[in-house]
Amino acid sequence: MTGPVSSPVPASGVPDLNRSSAIIDADLATFLTERVSLIVAVVADSGVPDLALALGCRVDVEAGRIDLILDEAVATSLLTLVKAGRQEVALVASRPSDLRTVQVKGGNARLQSFPLPWLDALEQGIRGRRDELAKIEFGGSYAATLYHFSPESLVCLRFDASAVFEQTPGPKAGQQLAGAS
To answer: What total number of domains does the chain contain?
Structure first.
């Protein structure tokens, strides 16, 4: 989902590298919002992560905040964990055609209602994700099923990014790109 991606430099003109705003730069924000598969995880009491597919993403670079758009009907168990107080989130964003992959970890997870004005941008982003899957021959009915949703069941999972890791297969996989060590 494309959408407002704010500037990495706050209004004061001086970035505060000690704030979470330094976690997400403009390049990462663009990557997260264009043509990538988004898988979000929250750890259950058993220690096993509960996963859900996010349909889209909006990024506030200055605040270091990510809004993931989920279908409540599909992500029920993950959303139940957040409602119960689980605040730590891991997001894996991967572009199927070239395998570029990053993991964003964060906290302070909370649910927000989905703003209906975002719907057009969400649908545009989903078309891009479907096109990306078609590049690796997973288009058509597979992509349509994967990204099917009902607008009335959309919800935002908002969290504050705290660390970013390279996960693209290769020698840099696992390397921390930004955030607390």
So the answer is: 1
